[in-house]
Amino acid sequence: MASIVELRDESDEKLEEMLENAREEMFNLRFQQAAARLDDLSQIRRVRREIAQLETVLNQRDLAVKAALTKPDVVAAVAGQDDWSAEVHFSYEESAWEVAFLDEDDNELVATMVDLNKKIARGRRSRRALAK
């Protein structure tokens, strides 16, 4: 299994393929366990952890794109484009996700940094404190 650092550097297509393979392996392991042919039960735990890590990286990338789309400069740059895509990479120096929006010719429209670890004001008191 690759470390989380290596997983963050992989492409979305590669991560989806790895996730599909891990789910297939989990199915086979559960089938072997039901048939009492599985000798090492720790394999199930290892594959379950691998699936969780892959899903976490993919989910964080989706959240980074959604968070970037809430920024006014990104909305203005993407508004005129019908067909755009987003490339997401994790920057360890900034501890944030770098999101680059591309048009259909792979020309960069806009790029921004998104920190998913930043605290979001959710309660009434915290929203009032931010408003002041």
Question: Which structural traits does this protein have?
Answer:
132 residues, alpha+beta, three-stranded antiparallel β-sheet, 5 helices, 17% strand
Helical content class: 40-55%
List low-confidence stretches: none
Residues in β-strands, percent: 15-25%
Question: What is the makeup of the main sheet?
Answer: 3 strands, antiparallel
The backbone outline, from C-alpha atoms, is extended
Assign the CATH class. Mainly Alpha
Radius of gyration: 20 Å
Q: What's the SSE pattern? A: HHHHEEEH
Q: Which strand order do you get reading across the main beta sheet?
A: 1-2-3
Which structural class do you get from the secondary structure elements? alpha+beta
Whole-number count of domains: 1
CATH topology: Helix Hairpins
Care to give the gist of this entry?
The chain is α+β, with helices and mostly antiparallel strands. It has five helices and three strands. It has a single domain (about 5-115), classed as Helix Hairpins.
Notes on the protein architecture:
The structure is a single chain. The protein is an alpha+beta fold. It has one domain: Helix Hairpins (Orthogonal Bundle). It contains 5 helices and 3 strands. β2 and β3 form a beta hairpin. α2 (about 10-35) packs antiparallel against α3. It is extended, with a radius of gyration of 20 Å. The N and C termini lie far apart (about 50 Å).
Write the layout of secondary structure elements.
Blueprint: H1 4-9, H2 12-34, H3 42-68, H4 72-79, E1 84-91, E2 96-103, E3 108-114, H5 124-131
Antiparallel strand pairs: 1-2, 2-3
Helix pairs in contact: 2-3
